[in-house]
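User: Okay, second chain of the day. Same drill as before: sequence in, structure tokens out.
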Amino acid sequence: MKILVASHTYIVDLNCEKLKWLTKLDPEIEVTVVVPKRWRPGGVQNKIIETKERTEGNFRVVPVSNFSQNNQGLLCFGADIIDLLRDFKPQIIQVEQGSKSLGYAQLITLNRLLRLKAKNVFFTWWNLPYENKFPISLLESYNLRHTDGLIAGNTDGAEILKEKGYRGQVKVMPQLGVDENLFSPRPQTELASQLGISPSEFVVGFVGRFVEEKGILTLIQSLAGLTELSWKLLLLGRGPLKEKVSELSAELGIKDRLVLVESVPHDRVPLYINLMNALVLPSETTYKFKTLTSVGWKEQFGHVLIEAMACRIPVVGSDSGEIPYVIGDTGLVFPEGDIEALRDRLRQLMENSELADKLAHKGYERSMQQYTNQALARQQLDFYKKLFAS
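Assistant: Same drill. Structure tokens below.
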């Protein structure tokens, strides 16, 4: 099976592990990843990534000339993509830029013009309701009409596109998996000592951006009602609410229990997660549906959840977006923004070590079975086989 995947995501080699696993599962599988030759990450001015070709067995990354250097929807490719398609002759063409991307329409059209007869697949994270205006409505309609398979990063995203008229095969799974070699259970007694955390203290952890939609202020207010118990709050990240976090903690009389660590390199994040007795993702939906677009945000997945689960750390999450589906029955879920409900979930874990241990074990098993890069590769390969069978 020859699979061609197009996305700016795979400029980063770390993000390619799931696709590399596809070639390890079956020696007959070849994966070619098309990435833009030049890309400006996050639209950062004066920072351009010049990509290079990489090969590892039956897996390769090929930079192709591109139009638009910082917009997923507008990203499309130069004429050199034609020679690549002719030479490789893919049986699957997967574009991971959403349902309204020009790049997906371009590869659908080239698939037809070159008579490749490849299955057209796209990936999307988008999970908010929306309405399109011409010509975007025409573009999405064309893309959906010629799609054989949809991979959505969350349940809401799949449902929204069904409402838009999509009737083909659907798979819900994240774009990237967790690296179980990096995120694994490892005691961090020395690091705990460095941060002033004693073995008797229950460490509640948060990893992410310090912004209102991540629910960090709700978490602080919840913990303020548990001062009779011994705990520390470990916050790993940065963002515009940093000063507000400090002020609110002082106002509630819990600033001395706060351990704040600025963002660290990705390979050091597991060290801090392993300090925790529970990781909390208290995300809060903020979107407002308008006539032509959706303004705001809803949790698309919550990757830090599966990272904590892989470290055998029990997780607590709000019911925003995909969080309840990621956690399943392996953690505790509360209504988003509900301070008392979150306080109750935290109290349960602090006072019931057997429950905490049980959830930690179940979460670990779930992450290993469903969310490693190898597990995701198996799911993706099964999905491709269903497309050919149908």
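The mean pLDDT is 95.

User: Thanks, on to the next one.
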